[in-house]
Automatic annotation (TrEMBL):
PANTHER family: NAD(P)-BINDING ROSSMANN-FOLD SUPERFAMILY PROTEIN, RETINOL DEHYDROGENASE
Homology family: Belongs to the short-chain dehydrogenases/reductases (SDR) family.
Gene source species: Phycicoccus sonneratiae
Keyword Oxidoreductase: yes
Lineage: Bacteria, Bacillati, Actinomycetota, Actinomycetes, Micrococcales
UniProt keywords, alphabetically: Oxidoreductase
Protein's recorded name: SDR family oxidoreductase
Length: 304
């Protein structure tokens, strides 16, 4: 099989896309490549100043697609609501990319959810649900949700939403990424059952040298740990250009219900292909229960 590259992304002229967390790292590459292939892209970011700088970088590359910036804090359900209320017209592609990784101490979102579960999962669930009417205005809408090989650390306790008691940074991150994958698969099942044209896919980037490791919302909350971790990742693993291959493949050409990512060396790097799901990620009953629990927690019902 020929290795998939960005050059195989189809012409996206006339399409509109939203990429969360697009001001740096993998999200920035995703936004750039979508715009390079003709899509009009909204960078949905918490830090709009950084988002504007990212947009300028993309425009300087001479992309044909329009690039704009909108404020979105996935750790705030109110921010998600405001973003969706501002969005008008058909939406062809939503890339649920943003995330928080392994804060060393228990933290909560503005709504009282554990930070990783509330941001990585519930924020994107609410965003997808609130944007669903805009997605269904498009001819062939797609939603791609970025998970992680860390989802293998997750289990049936994902339904508990990462409680404060016994907080473990690595375990809770894995639970949030398992939640991402379960949500993506359940979204496809429900879309198919409703006869909807919407395609839901999932992907993971492998292990990529991005700013996520040094983020103050994650390991970077302890500066020395974040700095050392960042240096180690940069020495050992590829950068965001390679990390973005799986998510962009999933966002543009992958089959409905698929899970894509690097296929070499423990799925940390290598050519894009079908990624491995854990036993828990294949549990359709668990996915359905998590869907219902997520609707309850966010107050957002996702109905086709």
């Amino acid at each position: 099989m020929t290795r998939w590259t960005f050059e195989q992304i189809p012409d996206l002229a006339g399409r509109r896309a939203v990429v969360t967390g697009a001001n740096s790292g993998i999200g920035l590459v995703e936004a750039r490549e979508l715009a390079r292939h003709g899509a009009d892209v909204v960078l949905a970011v918490r830090n709009t100043a950084a988002g504007e700088e990212a947009a300028r970088r993309i425009r300087r590359a001479g992309v044909p697609g329009a690039v704009s910036v909108e404020e979105l804090d996935l750790a705030s359900q109110e921010s998600v609501r405001r973003f969706a209320d501002r969005f008008e017209g058909p939406l062809d592609l939503l890339v649920n990319n943003a995330g928080v990784m392994t804060p060393p101490r228990y933290r909560e979102t503005a709504d009282g959810f554990e930070l990783q579960f509330g941001t990585n999962h519930l924020g994107h669930v609410a965003l997808t649900g609130r944007l669903l009417p805009r997605l269904l205005e498009a001819t062939a809408p797609r939603v791609t949700t970025v998970s992680s090989i860390a989802h293998h650390r997750g289990d049936g306790a994902v339904l508990e939403g990462n409680p404060r008691e016994g907080y473990d940074a690595q375990k809770t991150y894995g639970q949030s990424k398992l939640a991402n994958l379960l949500f993506a698969d359940e979204l496809q099942r429900r879309a198919s059952a409703a006869g909807s044209p919407l395609t839901s896919t999932a992907a993971h980037p492998g292990v990529s040298a991005t700013n996520l490791v040094a983020s103050k919302d994650g390991m970077g909350a302890i500066p020395v740990v974040g700095t050392i971790g960042q240096l180690g990742v940069r020495l050992l693993f590829p950068g965001p250009e390679k990390g973005a291959e799986g998510p962009l493949y999933a966002a543009t050409v992958a089959a409905p219900g698929s899970y894509s990512g690097p296929t070499g060396i423990g799925e940390t790097r290598g050519p894009v292909g079908e990624a491995r799901r854990s036993q828990w990620a294949r549990d359709e009953t668990l996915a359905g229960l998590l869907w219902e629990r997520s609707e309850e927690l966010t107050g957002v019902r996702i109905a086709f």
